[in-house]
Amino acid sequence: MAKQPVPKKKTGKSKGRKRYGSFKTKVLKRLSNSLSLRECQNCGAKHRAHHVCKECGQYRGRQVVDKQKKIDKITKIKA
């Protein structure tokens, strides 16, 4: 069997973090280019394509998530 190469010294934390950091920035850049944002027909806020608008709760002209109900739930205090 052939011998495998063995590192002579331990790799430092900063070296590994630099390597991971450069990889992370490449991946994030690629993902941000592939992510497509659309403008909501109702409120004009940006949201992901084929997803419910987080601002008003509408999807394709229909009310899917009742935002007012969630606001009432948060603001009510039970004594």
Describe the structure.
This protein is an alpha+beta fold and 79 residues long. It has one domain (14-75). It has 2 helices and 4 strands; from the N terminus they run αββββα. It has a two-stranded antiparallel ribbon with strand order 1-2. It is elongated. The N and C termini lie far apart (75 Å).
Keywords, separated by commas or semicolons:
single chain, 79 residues, alpha+beta, two-stranded antiparallel sheet, two-stranded antiparallel ribbon, 2 helices, elongated
Write the layout of secondary structure elements.
Blueprint: H1 13-34, E1 37-39, E2 46-48, E3 58-59, E4 62-63, H2 67-75
| Helix content range | 25-40%
Counted beta strands:
4
**Main beta-sheet strand count, sense and barrel state:** 2 strands, antiparallel
Low-confidence stretches: none
